[in-house]
Each structure stands twice: as structure tokens, then as C-alpha cells.
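User: Second chain of the day. Same drill as before.
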Amino acid sequence: MSEQTDLKLAVLIDADNIPHTHIKEMLDEIAKLGVPTIKRIYGDWTKRTSSGWKPALLEHAITPIQQYSYTTGKNATDSAMIIDAMDILHSQKVEGFCLVSSDSDFTRLATRLRESGMLVIGIGEKKTPKPFIVACDKFIYIEIIGAKEASKTEPAAKTIPATVQSSRIETIDKGFIRLLKNTIDDLADDNGWAFLAEVGSLIIKKKPDFDPRNFGFFKLTPLIKSLGEYFEVDERETDKPHIKHIYVRIKK
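Assistant: Same format as last time:
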């Protein structure tokens, strides 16, 4: 998925299902994808469990929306977020939504927003149910965002440079290699070469939660280079200095 940093986004945060510890990193991540013109967070602010969010609301200019729990065991936050999202959609003030939650109840909302031509970015924990993940155009795990920040204060591994140092990284298995090969085949020219940026965009369409950081790499290029037994990389010069076009093909 190509990133449009001028894209107007509505950021809606479910305080009941998201930890407050990495709010700065979450907003920094969203800023890479667009401009958060609307920032709202939903929860019952009378509860002690919501107290951790309060300093972040002032620091990051997030508007808190009070939502009382009318019935024990029911999450009224979901309904409030969904109603607001539809109001924002019909106001035509934004071009995309960022739904920050690990709750599968927002699956239908994400689908409805995409049906209306909106870009939908999801942010949640790795426990997020698959239906919500695949309903988004792109889904980012909070654990990976937090790992990047933590890695700045930890010594990098000597054997694997420029990687995310985290115990939560996923294993590169045969299924992922097959996904890469199929995607390269889909985009390859007559000589088998595919433009790596297009490969990354197509993978996200097939697997919205794909992110090189899930596998320990900050970027797709070093991830592909680490798989030298399967792929070869060609870095081609451009008219602009310090900018190269990266192409990849399957090794025969």
C-alpha cells in the first residue's frame, strides 16, 4: 500500500481494548500514513482503569468521549465509536480511518467504511481476531510499534543488523516464502524481475497485517536480502543520487 502523508484521517481509539503505554508510538506510526485531522478516544473515564490514558489525552490533543457502561458485561464504547464513524463518513471531511482496537466487533465497521471508498488502517494487539484484521486495508500490531522504540535503548544484535530486537517476532515459514514467491510471480516482467515497492503493496493487499517488523526487519529490502537462498536482488541506479530502485526475482 502506497503511503500518502497528506491523507486526512480520522483516528478513533477504543480505550477499553487498547493499552495506553505506546500511544506516542501509535500516533507517530499514523503520521507516516496521513494527517490525523480527527482524534477521539472512547471509554468510561469515571473508571480507575482509564486513568492511565488521561495524561496522554492532553499531551497529544486527543478528544475524550465519555461513554458510560449502562449494562454490566456490555461494551457501550463499541456503539459510540461506530455511530461517530458513520457520522464522520457522511461529513466527507476525511479520506480514511484509523481504528485502534483489538475488538472483532469493529469488523463490520471496517468493511462498511471500505465499501464507501475509505482507506481503513487498523492498529491492535496480536490477540486481535483475524476477521477484523482482514477487514482493514492495513493492520499494524502495537507490539511491533513498541518494539521499535525499545530497540533504540538496547544494543543491536551483532549478527543481524538493522533489525527489530524483540521476542515477539514471527518465524519465516514455508507459507510466507510461498506468499512472497506468488506475489513476485504476479508482478514479474519477462525476465522474472518485480519492482520491490509493488511487491510490498500487493502483499499487504493479500495479507493486511504484513509488516517486515513482524519478522524482525524495519524494511522489506533487508528482509528479502536475508532470504538469499530463495531470491536475488538488483539495485538499479536512478537519475537522483542516493536513490535506487530495488528489483527482486525468484532464484532458479
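The longest helix spans residues 76-91.

User: Great, on to the next one.
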